[in-house]
């Protein structure tokens, strides 16, 4: 006996319990999670996840980089499945929700369909991507990046962590180097549920973010070479102060990103060479992270930041070198899938808004090769990558319900 | 047979050779000197200096903190001597001139008087102060500070270096804990020749700086507490960026010091807690060093810097804590002695100007208890505390000649 699919809701308590069950693998005293990719805690959660998927009747396959694919058959097996999921690894001092919510909500969707006896037309595939966080191995979003061909498998297998352990070794150590070829799994589309990791939904009182775009990124390494001199005996007008130069650059980036709109800009690292209380800083190295969902604005950010730095350098008679170390183009999620997410949110009566993802996600990588979209739910104070990361049971359930109904609309209910 | 004192000149080559002889004690491959106070190289230069003083007929006494006093008798031994000298220790990567010039020029003055057969009315006392630099032991200018009673001898003897070696132990290790009570040596006045350690004389083409004032100092420890969040997903208007806050403070200090005039202000240290390329800095600690030769301006610096920091903190919704860790009042050198330096420079035909010392010196400490003054000569590009520190033979000789004639005018030539 099947319930009508249109009224279907996931089991909020079961999802919440599952989140807290897996949060034990790598639990920290402050209530967060430390579960570095391919480490012993990641093996624990992977083992738990595989067992749970198998109990839910899914066939679990693992590819050569440890990406996990748990298949639920559909009526029409001639078409690739709709994928749903995220990642189970965390930051070194991470929270319970980043990534985990998306993977466990996908499992909850399957359990809900099973309970309701609903068969879908297209098959479904619950996914756990390897090393989304990038804390132990670079690059972040490694599994999905290799999946879409941005890196070769051999390149990734050879990457080493700080202790010199390769990805290949780490996969073998925990028994998660599978035999499915990387990239072999096909998808008709992919939906990722994730916490927002920003403050917008909470600030606006929205439950669901319909993720339309992912920001493109420019990363720079910067170096300012001024002149180190005595803080007491060097008059203000004779100074070539590298920190004062950086200060103008930091504020210029803030102004430029604000003026352009649809952009952010941050100096996250700044180190004075040979700092001393009574010495004018002579050299400062720093990094810039600037982003926009609009490729044209990325270009303007590049031009304006470089022009500002050059102008400040000339005025202060110092050298400023800016080295662009990474450019990632903006993500524009598949309009059909974005529409499906929005329809599901509206049908369920959740307050929602279109939103741009500030952070990178596996779905951004996947979108370069197949139709993808994302669902955001609020997180407390916008905090993520932090043991204080928090989200409500009700918002997590809302996100899972939107995931359920988006997937149902894409996969179809078998008549 | 005595030469007329008014035409007397020091021996420029002998002074230059002496500077380069002592630069061998702790010579670095880059042409600088590493001669940390009370270490083996300091013992080498002290031994050399004691022998040179004794060869010049001086009686060398050493006090309980290793301060060295080399006395040349005058005709009238009822009056305390005119002191002249500086220090022989250096920074870890120091130069050949900082301190050394003042001590060796004092020795050169004695040698010149000896060669000319000139007896002075008042006795003279060539001095080498212990630990002016403060690199191995805090505080800097330790020997002269204890000499004037700012610290007790026991306090100083108990200070330890990074390896846990006390000042007492270090003095005993090199045999320079003398039996003369600290502070027992009396002076009728004290003249210190030093390189400027700043760019003013060189920039203005002056040979001699007649040092009128020494700057007072305010030192602060600062801490900014904003909020760490994701550089991609936190909109510009939601940020509480600790580094952008510091940037405004750095530029405000620059503006305040420039507007007040007769002041400098520097942020020499700034450390982001848990820096990461894609994280908005949530906490920054920093230091401020601000100085003026005018106590009223010091007060204004304090008020305006605190007000600026509070305003920036309120605007950015962050916390800024400023802790004043040191206040040193400005030095106003003895007007008679300053006049004597100026007269000597004019009589010798050297281009000169009144100047304020940006750095602290032993003479600043001494001036709190006895009449003192200083003579500056230019150093290349204003660079000091650096192996690149440099000065010309001609400028060093000019400084020594001004020292000679200042001392002669103060001590008087015995008829």
TrEMBL record, chains A, B:
Q: Which residues form the Peptidase M20 dimerisation domain?
A: 216-313
* Gene3D superfamilies noted in UniProt: 3.30.70.360, Zn peptidases
Secretion signal: which residues?
A: none
Q: Which cofactor does it need?
A: Zn(2+)
Which is one GO molecular function term here? metal ion binding
Q: How is the cofactor bound?
A: Binds 2 Zn(2+) ions per subunit.
List positions binding Zn(2+) 2. 98, 133, 385
Q: Name one Pfam family in it.
A: M20_dimer
Enumerate the InterPro entries for this protein. Amidase_Cbmase, Bact_exopeptidase_dim_dom, Peptidase_M20, Peptidase_M20_dimer
Q: Which residues bind Zn(2+) 1?
A: 87, 98, 194
Keyword terms, alphabetized: Hydrolase, Metal-binding, Zinc
- At the top level of its lineage, which domain of life is listed? Bacteria
Q: Which family does it belong to?
A: Belongs to the peptidase M20 family.
Q: Which PANTHER family does this entry report, sorted A to Z? A: ALLANTOATE AMIDOHYDROLASE, ALLANTOATE DEIMINASE-RELATED
**What is the designated name of this protein?**
N-carbamoyl-L-amino-acid hydrolase
Which organism does this record belong to? Rhodopseudomonas pseudopalustris
């Amino acid at each position: 006996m099947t319930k009508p699919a249109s009224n279907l809701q996931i089991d909020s308590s079961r999802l919440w319990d599952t989140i807290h069950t897996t949060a034990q693998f790598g639990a920290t005293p402050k209530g967060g999670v430390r579960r570095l990719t391919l480490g012993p805690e990641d093996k624990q959660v992977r083992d738990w996840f595989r067992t749970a998927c198998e109990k839910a009747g899914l066939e679990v396959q693992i590819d050569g980089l440890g990406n996990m694919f748990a298949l639920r058959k559909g009526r029409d097996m001639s078409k690739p499945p709709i994928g749903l999921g995220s990642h189970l690894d965390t930051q070194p001092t991470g929270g319970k929700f980043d990534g985990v919510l998306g993977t466990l909500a996908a499992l909850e969707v399957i359990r809900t369909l099973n309970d309701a006896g609903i068969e879908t037309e297209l098959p479904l595939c619950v996914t756990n991507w390897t090393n989304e966080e990038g804390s132990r191995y670079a690059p972040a979003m490694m599994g999905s990046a290799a999946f879409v061909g941005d890196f070769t498998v051999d390149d990734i297998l050879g990457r080493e962590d700080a202790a010199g352990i390769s990805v290949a070794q780490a996969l073998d150590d925990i028994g998660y180097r599978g035999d499915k070829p990387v990239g072999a799994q096909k998808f008709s589309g992919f939906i990722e549920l994730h916490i927002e990791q920003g403050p917008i939904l909470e600030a606006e009182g929205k439950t669901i973010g319909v993720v339309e775009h992912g920001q493109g990124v420019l990363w720079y390494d910067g170096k300012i070479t001024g002149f180190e001199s005595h803080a007491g005996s060097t008059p203000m007008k004779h100074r070539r102060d590298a920190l004062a130069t950086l200060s103008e650059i930091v504020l210029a980036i803030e102004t430029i990103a604000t003026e352009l709109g649809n952009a952010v800009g941050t100096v996250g690292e700044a180190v004075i060479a040979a700092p001393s209380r009574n010495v004018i800083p002579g050299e400062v190295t720093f990094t810039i992270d600037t982003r926009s969902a609009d490729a044209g604005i990325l270009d303007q950010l590049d031009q304006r930041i470089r022009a500002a730095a050059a102008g400040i350098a000339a005025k202060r008679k110092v050298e400023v070198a800016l080295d662009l170390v990474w450019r990632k183009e903006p993500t524009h999620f598949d309009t059909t899938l974005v529409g499906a997410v929005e329809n599901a949110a509206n049908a369920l009566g959740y307050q929602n808004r279109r939103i741009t993802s500030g952070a990178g996600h596996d779905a951004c990588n996947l979108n370069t090769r197949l139709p993808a979209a994302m669902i955001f739910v609020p997180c407390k104070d916008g905090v993520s990558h932090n043991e204080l990361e928090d989200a409500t049971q009700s918002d997590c359930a809302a996100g899972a319900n939107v995931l359920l109904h988006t997937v149902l609309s894409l996969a179809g209910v078998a008549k």
